[in-house]
Write a structure and sequence with these properties.
Number of domains: 2
Helix content: 40-55%
Radius of gyration: 19 Å
Number of helices: 10
CATH architecture of the largest domain: 3-Layer(aba) Sandwich
CATH class of the largest domain: Alpha Beta
Shape: globular
Bound molecules: uridine-5'-diphosphate-4-deoxy-4-fluoro-alpha-D-galactose
Strand content: 15-25%
Strand order of the largest sheet: 3-2-1-4-5-6-11
Distance between the termini: 41 Å
Length: about 325
């Protein structure tokens, strides 16, 4: 049984990948400081509560587990916060990736799968954007991830026989486990679909719509929303690629088409049955107008076949999760 070490496995995306790995029969160990993750979200394998900055604990845990591959999810992920607090992003994302890679090299771990982001592209000249487009991030979040990608590229070039990686550039990840076991559970969620659904449930008085004067058909930003279980499957496909001897590579993870913020809000109202209040606000700093993925490469090279390319399905699964989470919280109190 292959062993996979997962940083950030108690977080939103990491926990869905841990679930997929466990269901596929891999042995998993999660390493997470629980800053934004949750113990209950780790459905398979053990959890070591630790910080990536704790080099002795990280190295010892890795040495003891002896993984065949490392998957690195632990990171800070909010565009707006990165503009306000850039050093947090360079520390949590770039510096921690560097330290993790030093430990990985020290122990000779040969495979690495990295959570990158569409934010590395900035404002692409053409969309859907392909993996070969220039990387020109417009916020520290994207810049911090681009630097980590550079570390990986340089490291794999220096040691092509003993270190290979796949970087997956996520577009807008949303939705939740169909079985209602896990989903997004941040303490202060900022992502559109989650904010909209929590507003529908009455947890916020209104939803702010950031920017209505973008050069898009309805003036609001366009994003490529991908279901988290499809993204988890992309990680398993990347892992199989590396285990089968495939080379280092980079793939977009999106469906190739997008929806505007207004379209998402309308559907969220429809699915929840609540006509919640929407307040038009100024543009949020660091937001590109439109970002969608060219996804032919991952389909061809990794044979990835998305199952949930349907915004209604995505929002419905998130809506079910919101209700499930509230029931859990109520049953505890
Ligand atoms: N938005 C609102 N109101 C909200 C929240 C979001 O109008 O309350 C808007 C944003 O301004 C943006 C769109 O909805 O136009 C999507 O915003 P999210 O915060 O949901 O997601 P982002 O597009 O900022 O971030 C996502 C991923 C990143 C990825 C980035 C690329 O989280 O990993 O897309 O831009 F890098």
């Amino acid at each position: 049984m292959k062993k996979i070490f997962v940083t950030g496995g108690a977080g939103y995306i990491g926990s869905h990948v841990v679930k997929a790995l466990g269901e596929a029969g891999y042995e998993v160990l999660t390493y997470d400081n629980l800053a934004t993750g949750n113990r209950w979200a780790v459905l398979f394998g053990d959890l070591v509560v630790g910080d990536l900055g704790d080099r002795p604990l990280l190295t010892e845990t890795l040495r003891h587990f002896g993984p065949d591959a490392v998957m690195h999810f632990a990171a800070s992920i909010e565009v707006g916060e990165s503009v306000a607090n850039p050093l947090k992003y360079y520390r949590n994302n770039t510096l921690n990736a560097l330290q993790l890679l030093e430990a990985v090299r020290e122990l000779g771990i040969p495979r690495f799968i990295f959570s990158s982001t569409a934010a590395v592209y900035g404002i692409p000249k053409t969309i859907p954007v392909s993996e070969t487009a220039p990387l020109m991030p417009i916020n520290p979040y994207g810049a911090s991830k681009r630097m980590s990608e550079q570390l990986l590229a340089d490291l794999s070039q220096a040691h092509p026989d003993s270190f290979r990686y796949v970087a997956l550039r996520y577009f807008n990840v949303a939705g939740a486990d169909a079985g209602g076991r896990i989903g997004q559970a941040y303490r202060n969620p900022t992502h559109l679909i989650t904010r909209a659904l929590k507003t529908a449930r009455g947890l916020y008085p209104s939803l702010q719509l950031f920017g209505t004067d973008y050069p898009t058909p309805d003036g609001t930003c366009i994003r490529d929303y991908i279901h988290v279980d499809d993204l988890a499957e992309a990680h398993l496909a990347a892992l199989r690629h590396l285990l089968d001897g495939g080379g280092s590579d980079i793939f977009n993870c999106g469906y190739g088409h997008g929806y505007s913020v207004r379209e998402v809000i309308d559907l969220a109202k429809n699915i929840s049955g609540v006509d919640f209040l929407v307040m038009e606000a100024d543009r949020r700093k660091g937001d590109p107008p439109a970002l969608t993925a060219r996804s032919d490469k991952i389909k061809e090279v990794l044979a990835w076949q998305p199952q949930h390319d349907n915004l209604e399905f995505i929002i419905r699964s998130a809506w079910q999760w919101e209700q499930e989470m509230e029931e859990r919280l109520n049953s505890r109190s």
